[in-house]
Write a structure and sequence with these properties.
The protein is an alpha+beta fold. It contains four helices and nine strands; from the N terminus they run βαβαβαβββαβββ. The strands form two sheets. The protein has a five-stranded mixed sheet. A four-stranded mixed sheet has the order 6-9-8-7, with helices on one face. A hairpin with an 8-residue loop joins strand 7 and strand 8. It is globular.
């Protein structure tokens, strides 16, 4: 199995092939107030299962990028891309996670901790119920790492808890929500 190079918002931006203006977003120069996040994975099916079953994203279909186009714009060396799109939320402003297999030369970045390597190191997802999130994780066979969930420190919001898990390629996913049992 190939390993990962993950979470490149810049690459994800390049995958947005057609920009559609949705209003001025309060004078912002951007057509949308959210970003899409792209993640290259070693096993597309396992990643989709993790992010939908364990985390709670919704499968929103996907799209393909032709190999010639991908090469011309600098995305790949000519490899076509099959991209699965998952959403968190609904509507045009939902967060979109775009998953794709890298194949060939993709490699895993050492990430023992979120500060181990430069670049995007983790994603944070805010949940309504930590108890429900933990139940989804357990059902999917995913265990939190270290000593989480753990209440946030007093300088943040101690009524909230942080749970950290890893996706199938070892990337950090933070879940922030009310302390368990709240």
């Amino acid at each position: 199995m190939k390993t990962t190079v993950c979470l490149s918002a810049f690459t994800s931006f390049l995958f947005t092939l057609v920009a559609v203006a949705h209003g001025d977003h309060h004078g912002s120069p951007f057509t949308e107030p959210t970003i899409d996040l792209g993640c290259v994975v070693s096993d597309l099916d396992a990643a989709v299962e993790f992010y939908t079953e364990a985390i709670g994203f919704q499968d929103a279909g996907g799209f393909q990028v032709d190999g010639d186009y991908a090469k011309e714009v600098g995305l790949t060396n000519g490899k076509a891309l099959d991209i699965k799109v998952l959403t968190l939320g609904e509507g045009e402003e939902a967060t979109r996670l775009k998953l794709m297999e890298g194949g060939g030369r993709s490699r895993k970045i050492k990430n023992d901790h979120v500060t181990t390597s430069l670049g995007f190191s983790y994603i944070t997802i805010f949940v309504k119920s930590t108890d429900e999130a933990l139940a989804r994780l357990k059902k999917a066979g995913v265990k939190p790492i270290a000593h989480s969930p753990k209440a946030l420190p007093a300088n943040l919001n101690p009524a909230m808890a942080l749970t950290i898990v890893r996706d199938p390629d070892g990337n950090f996913v933070e879940l922030v929500g009310p302390k368990p049992g709240s």
